Batch of 2 targets.
Target 1
Amino acid sequence: MNIDHRTIFPIGVGKALAVFLIAAACIGCGTDSSLAKTSAEDSLNQAPPIEPQVASPDAAIAFLHLVEARVNEPAPGQRMSAGYFTLMNHGTEAITLTNIVSSSADVQMHATTLETTGTTMRPLTEITIAPDSQIVFQPGGNHLMISNLPADAKSLPVTMTFDNGGSLNASFAVIPLNAWMNTAK
């Protein structure tokens, strides 16, 4: 049987091979656009694979998404309040939140646990966010204990630090007492 390659590859074998190699490189890279930028010439010359570079801490936290970051205004005469947020990890590796600090107030991560005698709050030293997952700090669960929040604060600047050395600066909105008390029904 005699097969004419021009009927199978009308654009030419070389061009068909180049298209195939580029498509295979793009598919193999998934959503990592930095690896998909390999030129067609590199693919044709069969250059050695690009070695992944050690990601900087800032690159590792680039996949994090903080939402609903808020602090409840303390009740009159009280110095303690609570903070809540959701932190999403859109990356492919787990990352561990190790600390949250603020220059304006004292902040500590806490976990609420159910014990035989009732619920207990305990300090939380770290929390890991799995790849493509999230952690939720909410009433009755993990939360921030905030003390010494300035009385006139409208927001609370915080720095979240992670096990890879990266840090994320954020601003938590301070929710007025009458607003959060009315929604906690």
Note: The radius of gyration is 26 Å.
Target 2
Amino acid sequence: MKLVLGGLLFLISIYSYAGELRGCSYTPKGEETLVSFSSCALYYDGQLTVADSHLDKIAFDEHGLAPFYLHDPALVFYVNLDGKGISTLFFNLEPDAFHDGLARTLVDGKIGYFNRDLDIVIAPIYDWAEQFTDGLALVCKECQLRRNTCYGSYSVHEGMKGYIDTQGNEIVPVNYKNDAHSGIHISESDQF
């Protein structure tokens, strides 16, 4: 009986925590800068739900998207008019920009790509992935991030690198090893 009661209390505490509204920031309609709010979104099991009272106040772009910053945990999302959200990498505190119609997402420590409908179109299977340029992106599997303490940046080392197109096809197979003297450099403000 004690075991069942303890398990029930544990589940209730998880549900209560999951149902707690969290603080966020977004740019409201008519404003030009981010404004912070308390109690504006739920985040549980990787899913974001923006409170309807806030969804109506967000300034969306011409694609019906807006950056949305969750405070705890500190994550950046794109949200659409329906309130659907997807987490994205961020650079200099800005959400990952769309290049060739795609932006990057981080799921369970792996990077993939999503479109403006907020659908993942290239599965998150890469340890690092660059933004697309002219239809191609450099990607890496089994790579390691190393911090450069002198410059406050990170470099991607080791692993297997290659190039993919916007459909996820390997144009240059992801099996080229990086030599010891090169690396992809990432600024400290990148989130990974």
Note: The two ends are 44 Å apart (CA to CA).
